[in-house]
Design brief:
With 75 residues, the protein is an all-alpha fold. The protein is 79% helix and 0% strand. It has three helices and no strands. It has helices spanning 2-21, 27-43, 50-71. Helix 2 (27-43) runs antiparallel to helix 3.
Length: 75
């Protein structure tokens, strides 16, 4: 009986932690996606020279490549 009383809340907690770690909106992967989005928005600024825009685009592409390598999916 005590196993059920203690096991059910602990099991639910563990299940919720697992579900939370797979959510797409938060955590480290969400922060990385936001950084990539910000990078591309900076690259689209009209005040940049063409060479600056190309340089920033290269950095954004590198960030996307690193994301794909780390998380196994496109941002």
């Amino acid at each position: 009986m005590w196993k059920w009383i203690l096991g059910v809340p602990v099991g639910l907690f563990v299940l919720l932690m697992i579900i939370g770690s797979f959510s797409s909106g938060g955590g480290e992967s969400g922060t990385a996606r936001n950084a990539i989005d910000h990078c591309w928005s900076e690259q689209r600024r009209k005040s940049l020279t063409p060479s600056e825009a190309r340089f920033i685009a290269g950095a954004c592409e590198k960030m996307e490549s690193d994301y794909k390598a780390k998380y196994g999916r496109a941002p």
